[in-house]
Amino acid sequence: MDINNIFFDPASRFNQYCADWFKFQYRENKVYKEWVDLVYPGFHDPKTPQLIPALPIVFFKEARVICGEFEPEKVFESSGTTGMVTSRHQVKSLDLYERSFKAGFAHFFGDIQDWCVLALLPAYLERANSSLVYMADSLIRASGHPDSGFYLYNYGELSQTIQKLEKAGQKTILLGVTFALLDFSEAYPQQLKHTIVMETGGMKGRGKELTREELHVTLCERLGIKKIFAEYGMTELLSQAYSLGDGRYRCPPWMKVFVRSEDDPLSVSVKGSGIIQVVDLANIFSCSFIATQDVGTVFEDGTFEILGRLDNSDLRGCSLLIV
């Protein structure tokens, strides 16, 4: 198991990594093995990554999805309304998670020390076990910039910080939950030139639901920018995909998405529309092959867009916008 190299040379060996990870997780992960044996009896030799059985994401709510037995360094929990059963991701190695999201950031945006990171994540900061908050906190500290930090509802202070950074020509990322970005931009409209606005999703029943296009048009008009970036991640994964402003998410080399038919879990393709499946090689000690509850389109170049969620899936605090 060559864990250390998956973030450095995964592209040329992705298929082999997937085969190795499947064999390890089928052997060591009781939940995954039972699922594979039930739905895919006799499956032992994956020919291509998209044919590897994907575990429905709901199992993270119902069981400990782990390989072997260990005491996790951290248990990340999904957001949810009161009384809702949340997903729990038992993370064996926080170092592995940090290597994943830092390498993913560098892949798309370069050296973190070139950036000032402003995190507008009030709903998530109120939760102790948010993987998004953990990632943002680590990136804030790694940036080393004195103005990097978290903001709750102190929009005035945030606006002053952004204006100072803009005046200095400092490259800045404003990473924000959707409802907070809308509230902030309404209260403090401005013209940004050196700041990337990146939304993470998350209306959580606050105000009128907007399509992603409506959201981005609104934010662009209020903040004087041409495009909105976006992050696609979830509690059950240790890697993130990013939209660079065109509405299509791109995966780092150790992560891929496929699409399957809603009616047939065995019908999986590298492109088309349907239910999104994710391969995340960083999920070595839980499950790397996940069937999400997101509906979307995967394009020929491997990019993808999210169209919504399955009608019968639970609402989540970080649920994606409807389109």
List its traits.
22% strand; 323 residues; disordered C terminus; alpha/beta; 30% helix
Description:
With 323 residues, the chain is α/β, with parallel strands linked by helices. It is built from nine helices and 15 strands. The strands form three sheets. It has a seven-stranded mixed sheet with strand order 5-4-6-7-8-9-10, with helices on both faces. Strands 1, 11, 12, 13, 14 and 15 form a six-stranded mixed sheet that branches. Helix 1 packs across helix 2 (30-39) and helix 8 (178-187) runs parallel beside helix 9. Residues 314-323 have low confidence and may be disordered.
Radius of gyration: 19 Å
Characterize the main sheet.
7 strands, mixed
Q: How far apart are the first and last residues' alpha carbons, in Å?
A: 41 Å
Strand proportion, as a percent range, falls in 15-25%
Total count of helical runs of at least 4 residues: 9
Query: In total, how many beta strands?
Result: 15
- What is the N-to-C order of secondary-structure elements (H for helix, E for strand)? HHEHEEHEHHEHEHEHEEEEEEEE
Structural class: alpha/beta
Strand order of the largest sheet: 5-4-6-7-8-9-10
Helix fraction, binned, reads 25-40%
Give the uncertain stretches in residue-range form.
314-323
The coarse silhouette is globular
Give the integer mean of the pLDDT values: 90
